[in-house]
Amino acid sequence: MQKYSLAIHGGAGTILRAEMTPEKERAYETALLAAIQEGESVLKSGGSALNAVEAAVVLMENSELFNAGKGSVFTHDGVNEMDAAIMCGETLQAGAVAMVQGVKNPILLARRVLEASEHVFLCGSGATQFAREQGLEEALPDYFFSEFRYQQLLEARAWGRVQLDHSKKYSTVGAVACDRQGNIAAATSTGGLTNKKYGRIGDSPIIGAGTYANNRTCAVSCTGYGEYFIRGVIAYDVSCLMEYKGLSLQEAAEFVIHEKQLALGGDGGLIAVDAKGNIALPFNSAGMYRAWVKAGEEPGVGIYR
Known about the structure:
four-stranded antiparallel sheet, 9 helices, 35% helix
């Protein structure tokens, strides 16, 4: 039985030490540490990678600090529309949801799509109906409201633009894990873009773009400007470079983020693990909220480059 590994992210972007108060920095570090410990507790007890990534993401969805679940940003119409995906590297089963409203933890809904439906991707009112049929916890709009996010919406409306997050942060959350059995999994959840219109969907719930897992190669969760990650099929691209070119996890992840993604004009980052427990955390932006742990080691937490 091999050792486990786990990595999480809470978004990437223009995250500068000069713009971060000590109190806010501690809050992010504390939230990241709590999430990595939540996921590790599953792996430490012999649990599956799929359960571990779900547990870590749920904790981040429950925090106002991250643009997912409770902390989701507002659309142009002043509502919270959330996307999420989860994938099992052992079976290649996946579940994804988009444009979900009123579901407390979209990642739990994505997991139910994986396990309890014949489909991979549900969206909008259909996804919400499925959540109710599955008995998932719902939440009123007040649960998702935060003054900070609302002010972001007013600012974006005033400037007539769609924006990612305060100071150009891509605050998607995600987790990737390798369990003691050598199986891997990935999960990603987001509230999308502030002031987004027309039912816009980013890369997070799209299998192969923002989320992917395959025991033969790697598990990946991305954070960045979704349109570029969709065009580059970024998560699957890392897997392809490993499977068809023989690159290592680190080589493939760095090439995709530092060369292919930059050439497209996108920035952000990703987290990835392989079935041997290796971890890669590349990003080409100023910072990326992240944490990681391997069996027998203390967790690491990082924010800046």
